[in-house]
Design brief:
alpha+beta; 8-stranded antiparallel sheet; 4-stranded antiparallel sheet; about 20% helix; elongated
């Protein structure tokens, strides 16, 4: 093998390893993303760029209440069940890799975790109650009320085991668990960690 061929092969190997490492980091550790919805206003606004922490998913951790998460969009966003419906599972290994790892053709929502597994959630008089105690939500604008006009099953309910209940901070204009049901923890992609754009708002997101 001459030096030119050897050098080409070495460069090709380096490129392949770099791509593989980038994919692994993106899937298991963290990845940048852009806010494309208004459902988390005023906490997050369209066009802002974030870093997602994917370690909780990697280690199969239950998120904390108040965490802002991204998750796979349910198949039906107007469901009338307690649990969100997912029936678009790819049918082969290549399709699964393309969809879940490369995230080609995948849509995601960004919301805040409100109810955890086995907790009783009640939406009443514009307030949120967890196990009978009013939830303090300092991230919401003063006077903003929380209602559910979409799914009567998700007004007073218990979050199923292995699921979470999440809503957008923009309660009046957010398609969230009130409409399509609680989200399986396995469908959570990451927890919002850092906002890096715009620069004047750089820092941890809460």
């Amino acid at each position: 093998m001459n030096n030119t061929v050897k050098e080409i092969l070495e460069w090709a190997l380096c490129i392949i390893l770099a791509i593989a490492l980038a994919i692994l980091i993106r899937y298991y550790v963290g990845t940048p993303t852009e806010v494309q919805q208004s459902s988390m206003f005023p906490t997050l606004q369209e066009g802002q760029r974030l870093i997602l922490n994917k370690l909780p998913r990697t280690f199969k951790q239950v998120p904390n209440r108040g965490d802002i998460i991204t998750f796979e969009r349910p198949s039906n966003t107007t469901a009338t069940t307690l649990k969100a419906i997912y029936n678009n599972e790819p049918d082969n290994i290549f399709a699964k890799f393309t969809y879940y790892v490369l995230e080609i053709g995948k849509e995601s929502f960004i919301k805040r975790v409100i109810g955890l597994p086995n907790e009783r959630v009640k939406l009443e008089n514009g307030k949120v109650y967890i196990n009978g105690v009013e939830l303090e939500e300092p991230y919401l604008p003063e006077g903003l009320e929380t209602e559910n006009k979409y799914n009567e099953l998700l007004v007073d309910f218990t979050v199923p085991e292995g699921y979470v209940f999440a809503m957008g901070d923009n309660r009046q204009d957010s398609v969230d668990c009130r409409k399509f049901g609680c989200i399986p923890i396995e469908k959570i992609e990451g927890v919002v960690w850092i906002r890096f754009w715009p620069f004047n708002l750089f820092g941890e997101v809460k």
